[in-house]
Write a structure and sequence with these properties.
This protein is an alpha+beta fold. The protein is 30% helix and 34% strand. The chain is globular and about 45 Å long. This is ASCH domain-containing protein.
């Protein structure tokens, strides 16, 4: 059964447009990737339309407040909750630096991919961000309306309640 994103859209949460590589999109949609690692990122809870590099917007997601800390702590969280490769995460974040782990709470796969051409038909100046862009700004209202009217057919909720003790042990 398909539903419109408007049925689950929360106008109290910031709405972002962000990009992921195809392998990350596949991992998120399969439920294997429940943390998104970044060197720096928006720290508060948000919702986002996710643009898959080279393809288009394939899903909408809701994320919780980011876990921020030393790279080793963030990498350890990844190994505990999603079996990430500690060394690979450390290499990405940089030893001795800080990092962010964004918890993915729910995903909603769009029934039809929204391509860059589709986006530009609505907002000719739109560009896919390297980090993120806020969609809930007055100058992007038409684009946000278009995106929230898209339908989704697959929903996945992540159970963070059972993972919370691991998070608390590292970030308390």
């Amino acid at each position: 059964m398909t539903q419109s994103i408007t049925t689950i859209y929360d106008d109290q949460l910031p709405t972002l447009l962000l990009a992921l590589h195809p392998d990350a999109t596949t991992a998120v949609l399969s439920g294997h990737k429940i943390l998104e690692f970044r060197k720096r990122f928006f720290p508060r809870p948000f919702q986002a339309f996710v643009y898959t590099t080279g393809r288009g917007i394939q899903f909408f997601m809701r994320c919780g407040a980011a876990y921020q800390g030393p790279a080793a702590t963030v990498a350890k969280l990844g190994t505990l909750v999603q079996h990430s490769n500690f060394a690979a995460t450390m290499h990405y974040l940089g030893a001795g630096s800080t990092g962010i782990a964004v918890p993915i709470q729910a995903t909603y796969r769009l029934t039809t991919t929204v391509t860059l051409a589709d986006l530009r038909a609505v907002a000719p100046q739109v560009a896919v961000p390297q980090t993120y862009t806020f969609l809930d700004q007055p100058q992007r209202a038409e684009l946000l309306t278009y995106l929230t009217q898209q339908s989704y057919d697959l929903h996945h909720q992540v159970d963070w309640h059972r993972r919370q003790p691991m998070v608390d042990a590292l970030f308390s």
